[in-house]
Amino acid sequence: MLLNEKADFDLARRVRGPRGAPIGEVFSFLSGLYFRGKLAYAARFARPGDDVQVITTDRGLLPIETRITADDLRSFSELAIDIQDRRYRESLERDLLEVTADRIVFLGSIATRKYLGILFDILEERLWYPAAFVGLGDMSRGAMLLSAVRTGRELEYLPASRLPSEVRRGHRHA
Fold first, then answer.
1. Burial level of 11, CB count in 10 A (0-12/13-18/19+)?
2. Where are the domains of the chain?
3. What SS3 class is residue 135?
């Protein structure tokens, strides 16, 4: 919809324009409730100096304020988030090796190796996740994050090292 030349709403016009729009705003529009929840939660609970970033298919981690254009969106769509694809894996690994924070809170799916496996392999004990995420789907996690923002109550985090190894490898548990 954002790439449709007939789309005349503000975000579509900005994405198709030369300056683009912030990736956080674009991904919120494209991903719906879950990403909106992640972005709102990060904005509400990030500590001063925290870097809020998103994982991309071909550019590793990008700060949420990074402006992207229609060409960037097309480029993202040409590559799947697949741990076997070196373009995805290597760009993410490169950026993770540059992360210096003592604690990184991951608001993505903890039930899939395409994210958690790479993150855990590099960040190890520094990687944390919301304890309440275990066993929940995207919509439930998004609603939970938005509820936390509304109530002003930050979620409890656990180190990813405490997840069962089959979860860290990307296998859902019952």
1. middle
2. 1-31+52-98, 32-46+102-174
3. coil
